[in-house]
Design brief:
heterodimer, A: 393 residues, alpha+beta, four-stranded antiparallel sheet, B: 601 residues, Dna-directed Rna Polymerase Ii 140kd Polypeptide, Chain: B, Domain 6, 4 domains, six-stranded mixed barrel, 27% strand
Amino acid sequence: MEKLIQEYAEKLPEKIISDIIENMPAGTAAAKQKKIFEAVYNEYRSSLAEPGESVGILSAESIGEPSTQMTLNTFHLAGVSEVNVTTGLPRIIEVLDGRKTMAATNMEIHLKSPYSEGKDVTVVASQLRETPFESFVNELDINITNASITAKVDVKKIEDAGSDVKKVIKLLEKGVKGYKFSEEKGIITIKAAKEDNINDLYKVKEAIKDIYVCGIKGLKQVIPVKRDDKYVILTSGSNLKDVLKLEFVDETQTVTNDIFEIEKHFGVEAARQMVINEINKVLDNQGIPIDVRHILLVADAMTSSGSVLGINRYGIVKEKPSVLARASFETPIKHLVSAALTGEVDTLNSVIENVMMNQPVPVGTGLPNLVTKGIMNPDHHHIAKEDKKAKAK
Amino acid sequence: MAADVFMDYKFVGTVKDAKVFTDRVISERRMNRLASSINVTLDSASGNVYIETAKGRAVRPLVVVKEGKSLLTKRHAEQLAKGEISWSDLVKQGVIEYLDSSEEENALVAFFEKDLTPRHTHLEVSSVDIVGVATGLVPFGHHNQGARLLQGSKNQKQGIGFYAANFPVRMDMDTNLLHYPQIPIVSTVLHDLSEYEKHPSGQNVIVGVMSYQGFNMEDAIILNKGSVDRGFARSHYFKPVITEELRYSGGLLDEIGLPDKDVKGYRSEKDYRFLEDDGIIYPEAKITEGDVVIGKTSPPRFLNAMDEYNLATSSRRESSMSLAHGQEGTVDMVFLTENSEGNKLIQVRLREERIPEIGDKFTSRHAQKGVISLIVPEVDMPFTASGIKPDIIFSPHGIPTRMTVGHLLELLGGKVGAMGGRQIDGTLFEAEKEKDMRAELLSYGFKENGTETMYNGATGEMYKVQIYIGPMYYLRLKHQVRNKIHSRARGPIQLLTRQPTEGRLKEGGLRLGEMEKDTFVAHGASLLLKERFDSDKVVLPISEESGIVAVNDTRRGRYYCPVSSEGAEITNVEMSYAFKLILDEFKSLCLYPKLELEPKY
C-alpha cells in the first residue's frame, strides 16, 4: 500500500489518494490494490480537460445557459423577520461585474460562547445596530408659530446606550448645518439661524431622524437568528473592521458579502473564495447544478491579477493581451489609438482576432501546428525570424 | 397624534386627527361637494395623509358599501334600465366612486355581492371588471391559469378576421381577411358589448383531442384536408405597393410612366409587360417576383457638367417599383391621389388567396397556439360512430402543464351549444356551470363527459380509448409561412463588406451570430468555423516590408507596393474582406495597421 501511494503521489491529487485509502476495504490483496489505483488513475486522466479544450467558453456557456432559467422572484420566508438580501441573477451579475457598490450588503456575525448559546443575544444585537436619533425621540413636532422643531428625547434611553444628550446634540449639529440647538429638561429645540420657511423646516425634521447616534456605523438592521443550536446575527449593511474589534464576536467565522471589504482586510485569496461562495450560494438557492470547476475558473480569472476585477471592460477585458479582442468588446477607438501610440503588436493568440481575420482559431483542432523543415525552431517562431533578420543584415 | 398633510406630495400643514380628516374628505366627495377625481389616503406606515388631485392617475370605479350593504340597489338598476338616470348620476349620488392606487390601499373590496361583510368598504362593479375587454373575450377564463389568460387574449389580437366592413375601399398595409368568419358558440358578455358579431375573427370547428401518428407533438395541430378544401380558415392577404413622384431641388422631379429604353438601369421589356401607357399596372394582373408594378424614372443623382450638352442620351435613372424576392399576387386595386405635399401618389393593392398550409399558425382562445404539421386526407381522418370527423386534431399533451381547463370546458360547452342550438355563456366568473352543461349533453343522447367512441380512418379499427371531441372556436393567426419561408445557398452580397445581405426580401443569409460562433469554439471545431465564415474570403497581396495591402497591376502582370522599396517581398495572404475593410478604416483614423507576416506552417 505504502509503495503504491508513493507511486501515485505524483500522478493523482492528494484528495483522491486519501479517498482511495479511506474507502479501500481492509485486507484487499496487493495485486487488487494496484488494479484499483490503476483504474482510478485512468478515470482521473479521462476526466481531465484535454489540451486545446476551450474551458473558458465551456464555463461561460455552462453558467450562462442555466442562469437564463433562473427566476427573478426569489423565495421569501413569509412572516419571518428578514434582512434585505440580493439574490438570484442580480446577485450573480453583481459579483461577476465586480461592482464596488452593492445593492445590499449583509454580514453574518458569529458570536463567541456564552453569547452564541443565546446569552444576551438581543442586548448584543442592539449594541451593534446603527441607531438613528429618531429612536431616542418620543415626540417630534414642528412649531409653526415660531418656526422651530421640538424634540422630546428619552434621556434614560440615551444614557443606556452609553451616550448623553450633549454628545447627541453635537452629532446633530454636525448633521444639519445652519440651525441652533438648545436643550432643556430633555426637550431639544431646533431653530433656524436665519429666516426659514416651513418646507425647509420639514426637510430638517426628516433629516435629523436619520442622524447616526450610536452603534456600529453601517449596520442598519440587526437580526439575531438561531442556526443549528447557535445564535448568529444577520445584518443589513456591513462594517467588517469595526465588528471584528468587538470582543464578543467570533472573528474566525464572521463574514460579509462585500467582496471588496474582504479583499481589503483579508487579501485576494479570501476574496477569491468569497466569489466562489457567493455564486454557489445563489445557485444552491435556485437549485441549479453547475460544476464547481466552472465557478473556480471564473473566480481565478477575476482574481489572478492580484486584485478583484469584474468581467467587464474596466476589469478583466482590459487585461486581454490582444488589441483587436479588446477593441471588439467595447470602446474600440480608445483601445486602437492607445495601441497605435505604444506600437502594440497583436500576436493573434486568441479566438476573436482570428475570427475577425477569418483564420482558424487556436483551440481544439485549430491548435496543433505542422512542423516543417522551413523553420529552425518550430517552438519559437520569433527566434527563427530574428535569426533570419540577422542573416539578412 | 398630529399628522402631516401633503397635497400632490407637497407639505401643506398638519391635522389633529388623520382618520377624522380623511373620512371627512371622503364623505364630502361622496356628497358631491368635492371633485370625484380627488383621492385621499392615510398612509399607515408614516401616519401621513396624502391628497391627490394630479391628472394622469389611473382610477377605477367601485360601488360604495356601507355597513355591509351595497349602495347600488335594485331601484338604481331599474332606473338605469329605463334611462331615467345615468352613470354620472350614480357618481354624483355617491353610489359609485373612483379610487386611485393609493386610496385603494385602505379599501377592502368585495368581489361578489354575496361576499359582503360589515368590514367591506367597496364592491366591484362587475366581476368581469378584473380583466380588460380583450381578456374578457376568453370564455371560461376563470378556469384558466392567470398567465394563460393574458396570453390567450394576446393571441386573439393576432387572429385573422373581418377587421373592417369597408375593406374593399381601404388601402391598408399588410392585412388579412378571413373568408367565412363565424361568431363563437361559446361567447361572453364582452362579445355582446364589443359587438363581436360585426367583426368576428374565427370559426367554430370540430376539435378532436387525441394524437395522430405523432404529428401533433410540440403543440402542432393536424388539419382535415376536406375541411381545408371546403374553405376552413381560408383568407386573403392584402399588401400595398406605394410610390410617389418626388420633387427635387432645381425643379427636377420623378416621372411615373413607362421608362424609355435609354434610361440608366433599364430592366428588360419583359419586366414591364404588365404596365399600361400611364406606367401603372392594370387590375387583375397576376404578377410575381421581379415584375414592375409602377414604372418610374428619377433625375440623375449628381449633375455632371457635361450632361447638359449631352442631349443624345437620357441621364435619368430607372426607379420603378417591383416585387421583391419571393413575392407574388394579383393586382386588386389601383389608387391615384396626391399626398400632403401635393406630390402624385400611387398605391397599388395586391391580393393573394391564402389556403391553410403546413406551417400556418392557429390558436384556440386559451393560449393553445399551434402550427399545422400535417393536412390529412379526409378519408384517413378518424371518425365517430355518428360519422363526425374532426377538422382539427389537438394534442392532449398541451393541457397538463399549461392547466388551461377553460379550453376543455369550451369544447364541452360548444357541444352543448351546437346540439341545443343556442349560444353558451362563458363569461368570466358568471359562466354556465360544468354540471349543468354535462346534464344537458346527456339529455341530447351524448356521453355526459363529452367523449365519444372513434374509429381509425385508415384501418376502420375502433380506438381503445374514448376521444374527447366537440366544436371549438379556432382562430387563424396572421403569422403565415408564406410570409416567412426563406433559405439561401448563394446570393447577393453587400457592396461595402462583401458579406451576404440581410433579410428575407433581399434574399439574405442566415447570420451565424456571436453565440453560435461560441458553440463551434466550445467544440474545438476550429476549421469548420473558419469555413462557415468564408463568405467574404479574399486573397490579397501584402508587402512584407510595409505590411499593408499591395497593388496588383494586372496590365503589367506584377505586384508592387507604393510605400515599400523596390523589390520588397510581396506575399498573397488569405483573409476576410471585412478585415481588409477595417484595416482601411484604421488608416482613415491615421493608425498604421502593419501586418507582420510569418510562415503559416
